[in-house]
Amino acid sequence: MNQENFIRRYFIIGERRFSNYWWATVILIGSFGFLLTGISSYISTSLNSTALSSNIESQMQLPFFLSMLKNSNSTGAINFFPQGLLMCFYGSLGFLLSIYWWCLIFWNVGGGFNEFNKKENFIRIFRWGYPGKNRKIDLYYTLKDVESIRVEILQGFDSQRTIFLKLKGNREIPITGIGQPLTLQEIEKQASELANFLQVSLEGL
Q1: Which of 1, 55, 120, 123 is most solvent-facing, going by the fewest CB within 10 Å?
Q2: What is the mean pLDDT of residues 101-117?
Q3: In the chain, where do the E strands start and end?
Q4: In terms of C-beta distances under 8 Å and separation of at least 24 residues, what long-range contacts does 3-8 make, across chains too?
Q5: Who has greater pLDDT, 79 or 142?
Q6: Where is the protein found, in the record's own terms?
Q7: d(CA 160, CA 56)
Q8: Domain 114-201, what fold?
Q9: 171-174 β-sheet, strand order
Q10: Cα separation, 139 vs 127, whole angstroms
């Protein structure tokens, strides 16, 4: 028998999904747009409200972009208060959210693998967590601790499809990824293959 007959390993993507890359990028670009709009409204409002602005212009030439901002404010550009201030506020929130999202992607929170090893008689559940004490979540169980494989399917707006590893002592360990539910066919196939491989019963289907 080859290696595949003794060892099964299922990889969990975690936060490094295409959808997370997409939304983190979109939010980052959008937040920069809001911040630049708010900052430009502050600069243009300041230039127009400062009594010395005309004297400064007469003595030295303003940079091109400052002159454009000053002129744009007189032609209907937004004021810093309250529109520009709100733009800065929402832009800052979006920027912080995008940075947090990129950190999750970099750390790959929730990513890892499930290994079922008949050759050495163990099950290994590995996940990456947040930086700190629990950065690595590495759990080991023996094959004889497994009683069955249970599938839980919750339908609705936020549908969830989860495979649980039922262990002795009424313990249940979820072994599917979070945030990207598998299709019903994929759940059935993976659960059936795993139950056959471990030679335990399958519950929930």
Answers
A1: 1
A2: 94
A3: 7-12, 112-117, 122-128, 136-142, 146-154, 160-167, 171-174, 201-203
A4: 5/118, 6/117, 6/118, 6/119, 7/115, 7/116, 7/117, 7/118, 7/119, 8/115, 8/116, 8/193, 8/194, 8/197
A5: 142
A6: Plastid, Chloroplast thylakoid membrane
A7: 64
A8: PH-domain like (2.30.29)
A9: 171-174, 160-167, 146-154, 201-203
A10: 9
Least confident among 3-7, 164-168, 190-194, 199-203: 3-7
DSSP conformational letter for 60: S
Tell me the domain boundaries of the chain. 17-105, 114-201
Pairing of strands 146-154, 201-203: parallel
Contacts of range 93-100, beta carbons closer than 8 Å, 24 or more positions apart: 93/31, 94/27, 94/28, 94/30, 94/31, 94/34, 95/28, 95/31, 95/32, 95/35, 97/27, 97/31, 98/24, 98/25, 98/27, 98/28, 98/31, 99/28
CB within 8 A of 143, min separation 6: which ones? Answer: 116, 118, 121, 122, 123, 198
| Cα–Cα distance measured from residue 113 to residue 70, given in angstroms and rounded to the nearest whole number | 57
Give the pair of three-digit tokens for residue 24: 């983190």
**Three-class DSSP labels, 125-165:** EEEECCCCCCCEEEEEEEHHHEEEEEEEEECCCCCEEEEEE
Check: CB of residue 88 under 8 Å from CB of residue 25.
Answer: no
Non-local (6+) Cβ contacts of 35 within 8 A are 87, 88, 91, 92, 95
Bridge partner list, 166? 148, 172
